[in-house]
Design brief:
Layout: H1 2-12, H2 15-49, H3 72-102, H4 107-111, H5 113-138, H6 141-161, H7 166-183, H8 188-191, H9 197-218
Length: 219
C-alpha cells in the first residue's frame, strides 16, 4: 500500500501531508498496543476470579549466556532467513527504479512499476494465512525453504536476462515470499527449547536486520 500510495499522495498534496499521514498511522498502531494491554489485564483479572495463582508462573531471568545455549540448527536457520530476506527486501527497495529503467520503452510497465514492485507485499498481506495453513498441513518445511530459495534465484535471472513483463516474476516472487515466511519462522520453536524461543527469535531477527541494513547500504 505504501509503495502504491505514498508517491501519489505527495504529488497530490505535499511531503508534509504524507508525513502527517504516517504519524496518524503510527498513532493507530499504538492504539492497538493499548488495546492489547487492556485485554491482557482483563485476562489477568479473569484468571484471578477463577482462583488461578499467576504468581506461580515461572519467570526466567534474561541472560546473554542463553545465546551460547542455542543449537547449531538455529544459527543455520537464522543465516537462511537473513540471506533470503536480504535478497527480497533489497530488490523490492529498488524494483520500481529497475523496472522503469529496463522497460522504459513500455509505457504500461513504466506507469505500473509501483504496482508491480508492491506485488510481493500485497500477495503476502492477503494470502499468507492460507499458505501457512497449507504448510502446517503438509509439513516438510526444510524442503519448502530450499524450493523457495531456488525459485527466487530463477525469478532474479528472469528479471536480468529476459524482457518478460516483470509482473509475472513478481507474482512468482510473491509466492516464494509467502512460503518462506510460513516455513522459516515457525521452525524456530521446533528446534530450540521452549525457554529459549524468545532469545532464538531475537537472534534470528538481529541477524536478519544486520544483513538487510548492510545490503541496503551496498545497493
Amino acid at each position: 500500500i505504501n509503495l502504491n500510495s505514498t508517491a501519489t499522495l505527495v504529488k497530490a498534496t505535499s511531503i508534509s501531508t504524507a508525513l502527517w499521514v504516517g504519524v496518524i498511522l503510527c498513532i493507530v498502531g499504538g492504539s492497538f498496543g493499548l488495546a492489547l494491554i487492556y485485554l491482557d489485564r482483563k485476562q489477568r483479572r479473569h484468571c484471578e476470579l477463577q482462583g488461578r495463582d499467576l504468581s506461580s508462573v515461572a519467570v526466567k531471568k534474561v541472560s546473554l549466556r542463553d545465546v551460547s545455549k542455542l543449537p547449531a540448527r538455529l544459527w543455520v536457520l537464522s543465516c537462511i532467513i537473513s540471506l533470503y530476506y536480504i535478497g527480497i527486501f533489497a530488490f523490492v527497495a529498488v524494483a520500481k527504479d529497475f523496472f522503469e529503467a529496463k522497460w522504459h520503452a513500455d509505457a504500461t510497465i513504466r506507469n505500473g512499476s509501483s504496482f508491480r514492485s508492491s506485488l510481493v507485499y500485497l500477495m503476502s498481506m492477503v494470502f499468507t494465512i492460507f499458505v501457512g495453513a497449507f504448510v502446517d498441513k503438509i509439513g516438510n518445511r526444510a524442503r519448502i525453504m530450499f524450493l523457495t530459495c531456488a525459485v527466487s534465484i530463477i525469478v532474479f535471472l528472469l528479471f536480468e536476462f529476459t524482457t518478460l513483463d516483470p509482473l509475472w516474476g513478481m507474482l512468482l516472487l510473491g509466492v516464494t515470499y509467502m512460503f518462506a515466511a510460513s516455513s522459516m519462522w515457525p521452525c524456530i520453536p521446533l528446534i530450540v527449547p521452549m525457554e529459549l524461543v524468545g532469545t532464538a527469535n531475537g537472534v534470528a531477527t538481529s541477524l536478519q536486520m544486520i544483513g538487510i541494513a548492510l545490503a541496503n547500504m551496498l545497493v
